[in-house]
## 1
Amino acid sequence: MEGIIKFPSREGEPPRLLGNRCGSCGKVFFPGRAICPDCFTDDTLAEFELSPRGKIYAYTVIHYPPPSGFEVPYAYGYVDLSEDSIRVFTMFARDSLEKLQIGMDVELVIDKMRTDKDGAEIIGYKFKPVQQS
C-alpha cells in the first residue's frame, strides 16, 4: 500500500491516507494521480495527507460471500472528508457494522481486509465510528 497509507511514526498518531493536491487549481485527489483531471497539469501535483476523520455519506452491508476471501458480513461505502473536500470509497470495520449510520462521524484505522489463499492476512485502510468520550 505504498503511496496510499502513511503509517503512524509515533504512538498515538493516527494513520493517514495519502492523496495529492494540484498546485495549479487546488483540487485534492485520492488515490493520488499522475495528472490533474481538472486542469490537466502534471508538474504541480504534491503528496497530501488527508484528514483521518470524516462522515459516512453512504454504505451497504454485504451478506453474500465473494470469491476473494472476504468474511461476511462486511460493509463498504463512501466517507466525506469535509476538511479536505473529498469523498473516499472505503470498507468499514467489521466490529462496527450494526452501529453504522449515514452522517456518523468515523475515523481511519488499519485493519485486516481479508485472508489470501495462503492464509496470510491482507491489511488495508477502513473507517470505524469515532469513540465517544
## 2
Amino acid sequence: MRTRVLVVDDEPDLVELIHYNLTKAGYEVAGVLSGEEALAHLRSSLPDLIVLDVLLPGLDGLEVCKTLRRNPTTAGIPIVMLTARSEDADVVAGLELGADDYLTKPFSPRVLLARIKAVL
C-alpha cells in the first residue's frame, strides 16, 4: 500500500508540481486548494501526511493545523508546512501549533521529498 499525501495549497500549479514529484517518488497524492476543502477531504479520507500552505484564502494553514491537532482522529497525522512566510516568528508559530516541519518557498522538490521521508 502506497503512502498517501494530501497537498493543500491555493496555487494550482504548485499543487500540480508537488503531485507530479510525489507520485513519481511512489506516493499516492491528493490535492486541494483551500483549508475548507482540506477539512472536508479529511472527513472522508485520512492521509499519512499533509503538506500544508500557511497562506490560504478563508481558513488559513495555521487554523487548519490547529484544528487537526485538536481532533483525536487527525492529531497524529504529520504536517509539513510549506509557505512563503520565512520570518523566525512564522516558523516558530507553525511549529508551536503542531507542524512537524516547516519549508519555505521557493523550495526544491528534492528537499521537500527528503523532509517528507524524514517526517514519516
## 3
Amino acid sequence: MCSSDLFAAWAVAGLYGSLGPALVHRLGANTGPAVGGGALFLLAVSGAAASYVRRNHNPTAQLVHGSITLAIGAVVFIAAVQAGSFWALMLATFVAGVGFGMGLQGAIKSVALLGQPHERPGLLSAVYVVSYLGMGAPAVVAGWLVSRGHQLTTVATGYASVLIVLALVAAAATVRARRVPVAAC
C-alpha cells in the first residue's frame, strides 16, 4: 500500500469540507447552509455505500479502482466548476465518494493484513495520521489561498487537478508494487 492512496482519498474529503459549501452556494444560487453541507454528506454516503458493496473484494483492486474512480470524480468536479453546474458538481461528489470509499477500505484492509493482531492498532494509527494529514493540509492551504483573494473556482480547480495527479500516481504505484492485474477483484 502506498501512502499516496490514503492521502488522495482523504484529500477529496478535505476539498469538500473546506471549499464544498462555498462552491455549492456559488453554483446552486439560492441554496441554504444545509445544501452546502449536503455535498459533504453525499460524499460520505456514497463512500460508505461503496465500502459496503465492495467489502469482500481484493484490497489491492479496491485501492486501484478507488484511486481511478477518485480521479474521474475530480475530472467531473473540474468540469462542473468550469461549467458552473450545480448538478454536475453533485455527480462529481457522488463519483468521488465512491472512489473515496473503495480507496479507504482497500488501504485499511491492506495495512491490517501486514501485521499480527497485536500490531494492528499501531498500524491503523499510522493510517489515520496519514489520512488526516491528507485531509487537513490541502484544505488549510486552499482556505488560506481563498482568504488571500484567490478566486474560489481557481483554487478548487487547482486542488482537484493536484488530486487527479496524486490519485493516478497512487493507482500506478499500487499496481507496480503488487503486480496485480487491475481487473482482479
## 4
Amino acid sequence: MAAVTIKVRENGPYRITGPFELVDADGRAYELPPGETVALCRCGLSATKPFCDKTHRIRGFDATERAPR
C-alpha cells in the first residue's frame, strides 16, 4: 500500500493524498470524492465539514505554523 501524505496548507486545509479511509466518531466511513486527494477543513467554517469548501479564503483564516526543525 502506498504511503498517505497529510500536508498542512498555509492558511488553508489539510490536504490528504494516498489511499485512506475517513470515518466519523461512530466509525462510519465518509464517501470520498473521486481520486486520492481530499482537502479537510482546518478553519472550522466550512459548510461541508469535514471537507473544505474554501470558505477560509473569504474569511481570512490565518495559520502559518511550521513543523519544528
